[in-house]
Amino acid sequence: MVLNMYKNTMKLFWKSCLYIIAIYTLSSCISDKDENPTENLAALDLFDQSYGAEQNQIFDIYLPAGRSIAKTPLLIYIHGGAWVEGSKEEFNQFRQALSREFTEYAFASINYRLYNFSQGNNKFPAQEDDVLEALSYFQSKASEWNISDKLILAGASAGGHLALLHAYKHPTVGNVRAVIAFFPPTNLAELYDFSFFTQTGLSGMLGGNPKDKPEAFAASSPITFINSKSVPTIFFHGTSDIIVPISQSQLLKKALIDAGVKYEFTEVPNQGHGFTLDTYPSLFQQAAKFVKEQM
């Protein structure tokens, strides 16, 4: 009798142990799944988010489905508009074409403070400072968004200028791996005398002409900061550009060659300041191939 009671007690004991182990194992599996939900992440578009306290310091971000810290870099697009107009919505006309070439990427498009001619507000380096603040913010949010800290900067015209300026001048802010620029200003002292428009705009934003303010013009020119460690750069310029002359990109090409920086430069025949929409897809394809080599 005592022996049978002992056997029954031991059976109950081991059944209880097995039950506890099964529950623990199941809960552990559920917990692990919850902590690593990458495969289940849905695409997420966020609009008019703030990266700073100023009204114009806002951005849109497009996070792809299934994103992860390991495989989802961020391409940041900076709009053009001669530093006086334009908005982050410029990116919308390129989003579909860029998404086809830059698969598995997240995209962000930023606004920045615009120079006001009539009031003289937001002179340089306000725009440069905004890009700095935006990239610092993106860097701080990468884990929360579940994306990589690897960045690609891209922009057109004034946006191309700001992308290049940040990449060369502030290489420690943001893990920038490459820059893509379309018809960018690169040497503002050389650009100053190109037209009445460039003279008026640059003298207002920089507080004078290149002779009066050489330091300001140099500090706001991307080519000033190119060195052997500058990031790989791909850029495009139309041969018929009458707003920012192609000589600005030719000066950039020479500076990159002299410093030994990897680059690709394409002169786009018969295109002006802003290419036709059917021109961009092949250029985006070229840019994606170049960027892939740098990642």
TrEMBL record:
This is Acetyl esterase/lipase. The lineage of its organism: Bacteria, Pseudomonadati, Bacteroidota, Cytophagia, Cytophagales. Keywords: Hydrolase. InterPro entries: AB_hydrolase_fold (IPR029058), BD-FAE-like_dom (IPR049492), GDXG_lipolytic_enzyme (IPR050300). GO terms for molecular function: hydrolase activity. It comes from Algoriphagus aquimarinus. The keyword Hydrolase applies. PANTHER family: AB HYDROLASE SUPERFAMILY PROTEIN C4A8.06C, ALPHA_BETA HYDROLASE. Residues 60-256 form the BD-FAE-like domain.
